[in-house]
Amino acid sequence: MDKQNWWQEAVIYQIYPRSFQDSNGDGIGDIKGIISRLDYLEKLGITGIWLSPVYKSPNDDNGYDISDYESIMDEFGTMADMETLISEAEKRGIKIIMDLVVNHTSDEHPWFIEARKSEKSKYRDYYIWRDAAEDGSLPNDLKSLFGGSAWQWDETAGQYYLHLFSKKQPDLNWENEALRQAVYDMMNFWIDKGIGGFRMDVIDLIGKQPDKGITGNGPKLHDYLKEMHQATFGGKNLLTVGETWGATPKIAKQYSNPVNKELSMVFQFEHIGLDEAEGKTKWDLIPLEISKLKEVFSKWQTELGDEGWNSLFWNNHDLPRIVSRWGNDKEYRVESAKMLAILLHMMKGTPYIYQGEEIGMTNSPVTDIQQVDDIESRNMYYERLEEGYSKAEILTSINAKGRDNARTPMQWNAQDNAGFTTGKPWLALNPNYKQINVEAALKDKNSIFYTYQKLIALRKENPLVIWGEFELLTETEEEVFAYVRSYRGEKWLIVANFSVNETPFSTEGTVKEILIHNYSDGQIDLNGSTLRPYEAFVVKL
Ligand code: TEU
Ligand code: CA
């Protein structure tokens, strides 16, 4: 594996623009708002921003339904603002990674508007159309990930079109060469603006074969990515990260082995599925088994070897807050948030921090569906009501897993609306912003923020964190996740107690230096000690 890529040493921060910082009091975060917070991000130490979509969009799925890839959503600002963001970030050593959503467009994209009008339009075949079956019924039983059939009857077209997400997100037909070329042209438009790369939304779906019921990992997927690489970012040393729900280590190597000339890395979701009941959906919860988490992470840490690269994340705009999920957002919020950060950031791969994670933001419970904005949660609510679930049951699932948990506005200070907006926020704030906010975190030298800052600094200063081998310690209590990183004769031990209880721990070796510790009173004895609730540390052996 080449060792010269900036993205292997990078730490990326994800911004969900709608919820980050409003600059004009309309209650919606915007690009000027982001620019005003770049100094904060520089202080944290991150070197890249993954910006969730800022393109023109009717917002059926908050920007993941794009109606014009080459202009900016009015609420977010202008193309000039976007160019300022790229250059202001650059001044601070931060690259902007754009969200590339090309599995589908909005149904309000001019391509789709033209496509549905006439079979003769050159855009018709940009999308996936099928006739009704003989008896008028659906082409097949493919389901949308947002509920219901994936086929929508279009009166004007006189055919069904495919939408793996909402009805307002028709799927693009990647078999059409002109469509592929149009996507590459659009990517080059952004590359020419000086961006640092792309995060590729549900990219593993573009090789779909709907008639065969194949959606993920279709037969032509990798051909398309190789073609895209060559036509756009190849040779430009950009970061490209694919969102690939179905990736195994073997598949991840196909994508990210540099010799294959596809992507830098992918987001794999195996760890994310561990609290879902087998064969059910994300809404059907089971408790997390730490042993499974260890198994999944060590598999990914060791199996890619030199033939691929990992991305590391706990959170994004689709997932509940990690401290509420696998930490403890009550008594041990600070300790457990730091524990989770230490555990993840000392692994091999490129870490991603989702906005607010660095101050330990928590899930934001709702008591009624009217408080929910997210299309996925809303669709599921009405579908399950019909299936006979109780409102209470459904709300329990939404509070645990709903996407709005991650989307409540960023908590900047203890003033009105947490300093996010002077107007009415588009989505209610988490009421805990008076305690949990950036201003308070910056004032407290023991805050979660400074743990993230320190972890980023350790990564920048120590090649071991980037390149070192990973080895899981297997002789520990179930709740203790411990591993060793080694590089050129140096060894670091990382220990994390996943339990609210005291847990015994012992291993061979002596501590040469404590590099980071989530309890402030320093002593660490490796030969027979007791870890405190959620205690975590990194030591040089
Ligand atoms: O997410 C892909 C995706 O499959 C999600 O819908 C996922 O199933 C669910 O959110 C897990 O909780 C991407 C984007 O990240 C998401 O925000 C978009 O809604 C979706 O694609 C469609 O573009
Ligand atoms: Ca605004």
TrEMBL record:
* InterPro entries registered for this protein in UniProt: GH, GH13_cat_dom, Glyco_hydro_b, O16G_dom_2, SusG-like_C
Q: Does the keyword Translocase apply?
A: no
Q: Which family does it belong to?
A: Belongs to the glycosyl hydrolase 13 family.
Per its UniProt record, what NCBIfam families does this chain match? PRK10933.1 (NF008183)
Query: Mind telling me which Pfam families this protein's record contains?
Result: Alpha-amylase, SusG_C
Keywords assigned: Glycosidase, Hydrolase
Do you know which Gene3D superfamilies this protein is assigned to?
Glycosidases, Golgi alpha-mannosidase II, Oligo-1,6-glucosidase, Domain 2
Tell me where on the tree of life, at the top rank, the source sits. Bacteria
Name this polypeptide is given: Alpha-glucosidase
Q: Where is the Glycosyl hydrolase family 13 catalytic domain?
A: 14-407
